[in-house]
Amino acid sequence: SAYSDVCVFEDGERIKAEFGRNKVKVQQAFTQRCDELYRDSVFCIQDGADSTTRKGLWDGIIAGCIPVFLTGVMNDEFTCFGENLHPWHVVLQREFYVTQLLALPPEYVQLLQMNLLRLIP
Q1: Do 36 and 28 contact (CB within 8 A), yes or no?
Q2: For 68-71, which contacts have Cβ atoms below 8 Å and span 24 or more sequence positions?
Q3: pLDDT tens readout for residues 86-105
Q4: Alpha-helical runs (H) found in 20-96
């Protein structure tokens, strides 16, 4: 893929193959791999994030990963944090989200990262 240098897409097949039917080990390995990906990432795509209480959303935030919503669903949920200090990014054209993220100015990315701290209780 054209984005293989900047994007990691994990489908979990390797983990499933390694641990087979041992559901506990599979779950532990998935959790560990997700934590590693969040820590090593600047942005985390939150496609399908339908609630501010979704575990994956908060795992990424705690790891310092800026959530990226491919739709505006979450804007209403997070209005309590202020209109101008959003610690996330909403992609306007879903099919071009990687290009949009790579084009963000570094200063804006730093602002988003600093604002993440405001979300953590």
Answers
A1: no
A2: 68/43, 68/44, 68/97, 68/101, 70/45, 70/46, 70/94, 70/97
A3: 556 666 665 677 888 888 89
A4: 23-40, 55-62
